[in-house]
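Objective 1.3, modelling of assemblies. Example input:
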Amino acid sequence: MGRTALVTGGSRGIGAAISKALKAEGYNVAASYAGNDEAAAKFTEETGIKTYKWDVGDYEASEAGIAQVEADLGPIEVVVANAGITWDGFFHKMTPEQWNKVIATNLTGVFNTVRPVWPGMRERKFGRVIVISSVNGQKGQAGQVNYAATKAGDIGIVRSLAQEGARAGITANAVCPGYIGTEMVRAIDEDVLNKHIIPQIPAGRLGEPEEIARCVTFLASDDAEFINGSTISANGAQFFA
Ligand code: NDP
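Predicted structure (tokens):
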């Protein structure tokens, strides 16, 4: 019987690719999502991966959702905190609502996802925590003060968790994707994408969700046991941290 893995935001985009890749490696995968029931139902139909709906920004909802996953599939040994949103705007126009929503989902959401599974990982002396950060958390990005703050925060989270978890057999690492061709990025104006974003990427293209999924399956594997508190950048040479 394979290990159980939870992927938040695992029904679409990068998360869907991660869920599928982990399933292909033999994990029992649960994918959570926020509200797009149609996409989740389609994903389950196509992949056979069970989906669960809760808001990662809500601690009680996360605890309850995680308890349900564990009741269905067994203790979560691999957790991928992938759910995330953008709500961009220049800082002089950014509202407290824009700031708070992105912080709640992308940063507090990581706490809400990892905290409930952490005691079990400590007891069982095994765990893999993988947080999906971003190149924009490494380098900053105009128009994304809120988003960049959360993604830089992810790096602080995994570096701290790594130090707490290392003796308990738990690793915590971040993956920092560059621009990946998901709905989040395709929603950017095509002119902006072609004139301003793709020219910044030496590879000359967007990344594929599967390229991020392969980083995650490696970090989840036994082979990655000594990699702890690291960030893997997958950005087509756009930025070197
Ligand atoms: P998508 O918008 O394609 O998918 C987001 C997923 O997260 C969906 O499953 C969505 O659920 C879920 N989600 C969003 N908010 C919540 C919430 N409050 N609670 C639970 N689930 C939620 O995003 P991407 O695949 O593009 O991004 C995935 C991660 O990768 C994010 O953390 C993002 O910041 C990061 N990233 C993405 C990059 C890119 O280029 N795409 C680059 C660098 C980092 P639902 O379907 O219900 O909406």
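The first strand starts at residue 4 and ends at 7.
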